[in-house]
Structures are given as C-alpha cells and as structure tokens.
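Cross-posting from the modeling subforum.

Setting up a comparison between two proteins and wanted a second pair of eyes on the formatting. Protein 1 (sequence, then structure tokens):
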Amino acid sequence: MDASAVNVNVTVDDFDSVLSYPDQAAWQTPDPSSPTFDASTTPWWMGTYHKTDVIDASVSFNFIGPALFIYGSSGPAYGSYEVQIDSVASTFSAYAANNVSGSFLLFGASNLTYAPHTLTLRNLGAKNGDAGGNALLFDYLRTTVQLAPAGYVLMLRFVSLGVLTVEQSYGIKHDLRRGRPGPHVFRNLELQQIS
C-alpha cells in the first residue's frame, strides 16, 4: 500500500449492488423492507447478511485497490469456503466449536497490487473432515482505494441538495460548512461509507 497516497476504506454491505450473486436463490437474507426489520437489534453491518448451505454458492466483487477484508460468521454450523482473488484461490474454514457473536474476519489481505482485481467468495461446505456444517455467512467487505497516489492532487466536490458545495483538496483538509479542518464522512445512496 502506498502510504504517501490518500488511502480510503470503503465498506460494501452484502446487499450492495456492486456485488454479484450468480444464484441469489441459493442465499437466505433478512428482509430489510419488512415493517418488523430493525437493524439495531442484529450484530450484522446494516442489519443484513447473506447465508447459504448450498455448495458452490458464490458472490463476486470487482475492485481496484491494495487491500481487502471479508467479514462473516463462525461457529459449529459453518464449514469451508474459498476466497479467489484473480487467479489465486485459497481455502479456509469458518468452523468454530462455539458461535462467534458479531462479525468475524473471514479473510484479509493488505498486500495486493494497486490494480483491478476480481474477488469470488465461494461456499465449499463441510470438506476434508471439517467438524462443521455446510453453512457460510457473508456480512460485508472492506476495501482500500487510493485516491491520490504520490504526485497527484485529489479534488472531491460534493453537492448536497443544490444548497452547499464542499470542495476538498487533500493536504488542505478543510470543511467549508464549518470553516475548520476535517475529518469528514460522506455517505452515498447505497450506504458505502467513505471516511
């Protein structure tokens, strides 16, 4: 990762449209449109998750960046899964004797090249004598994007309801709304957080 760049972590929820589920029917999810849905009562990011018991069910994500972290769950019902980034695949197990409360780090890498990548997370189920079951639960992922590598200037312009324009040139973090330095958090409509 280029420490001289402006590195920004982006969180992608399991319901985000930038993710591709080839067979959505293979996954169970809570219904956020239900009148009884309350995200604050669950340990999951934004109150949602995708869970499957179907072998080979997968989710894919295309990104450009040097880091990626995938979160889900671990416990006695969970088995093996494969994380493939580009052409390199690795197998892991989410099995644990006891359920983990809250999100569990399924995979992390901070040594990727700053280039386009394709991630595929695939459920393998109980494999090679796993003590667990066939389940896989995906909650969210985080990736790091580099907005201004060395030698570049970054200018972000945010317009809110046509009332206020905030311009930010990194190295001069300044909030025009308050007349004082950041940090700032901007949130887009699909709830991907930039901080």
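Protein 2 (same layout):
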Amino acid sequence: MDDTEPRTDDELAQAIDENARAEHALRSESHGGVSDSDHARLRELQVERDRLFDLKRQRQARRDADEDPGEAHERPAATVENYRQ
C-alpha cells in the first residue's frame, strides 16, 4: 500500500480487493512453489491486509458510536500483528 491511507469506505474496499488480487496473482504465478522472495511478499500482503481490515473495523466502531469514521487511522503493523485473539 502507498503512503496514503483510504479515506472512504469505497477506497478501503478497493484497497482490500487490490491486496487480494495481488496475493492471488503471486500464488498463481508460483505454481505451488513459493520462493523466498515470494514468501516475503506474501507476508507483506498479509500484514497489509490485516492493517486494512483493522482500519475497516475501526471505521465501523466509530460509526456505531456516532463518531466520524474518517478519524480512524491505519495502525502500525507491529500494533495490528500483536493483537491477542
């Protein structure tokens, strides 16, 4: 993802779709044999997707609380990746 985070729900959905397409393309091109660089890129895509879904959840929570969803911001990967499930 570039340095600008999605500003609308539509932009967020588009970013998630682009991420999924990139992962699918990478997996399709690898024909089952994922190289180290492909593995690293897949991990980057997973982290990016986690951050996007976190932003989507933040936006919905703000909306549910009658707050401005536009005030939600993408959190650092270290924060999102260390959530306890």
